[in-house]
Amino acid sequence: MPDRADHVRPESVAPRWVQRHRPQEQSLFSGIYGLVLASALVAALHAAGEEADPGPDALWVLLTAMASGAAHGYAHVIAQRASANAATTTSRSRSVLAEWPLVAAVLPTVAMLLAAVAGWWAEATAVDVALLFNTVALFGLGTSAARTAGYGWPSSCRAGGLDMLIGLVIIAANALIK
Q1: Interior angle at CA 115, CA 137 and CA 33, nearest 5
Q2: Of 6, 15, 34, 154, which alpha carbon lies 20 to 30 A from 82's?
Q3: Cα separation of 133 and 72, whole Å?
Q4: What pTM did the predictor assign?
Q5: Digits of tens for pLDDT over the chain (178 positions)?
Q6: Do 92 and 77 contact (CB within 8 A), yes or no?
């Protein structure tokens, strides 16, 4: 049997499209962070037994994501300023703007809550669907990241499963707390 690691493919074996369209590490980080943030917020903002108010909940999810993205980007600016390699103002602005995937990741959750505002479904249903969607998206991002890194399907699915576990923990905590 040939000696090979079945979980990692050599770079030359990765599909050409994957090699050309490899997502940036920052985008993956921010996307995963945004999904986890949206899940935690939507679970915390929806209180059982209280009057449903999905409009303000959607606004809080969006504003919190924007504030988190700005804070994380600004933390990069402070770190750059403190380093001996002080960057220009343009790169500092880019550090803050590079957090857009965090805000983009919460938009499906915001849309689901706004659908509840429109009366398409109840807020509780919107929360459940958002938690499920975000958990599946975490699996997808984890699997995709592992595949672009050259891992085979079994290892990629295990990586996606570990990312998905974060969403499942939030769902379990939501069920236990409420």
Answers
A1: 30
A2: 34
A3: 25
A4: 0.83
A5: 444 454 555 544 455 655 555 557 878 889 999 999 999 999 999 887 788 899 999 999 999 999 999 999 888 888 877 776 655 556 777 878 889 999 999 999 999 999 999 999 999 999 999 999 999 999 999 999 999 888 999 999 999 999 999 999 999 999 998 7
A6: yes
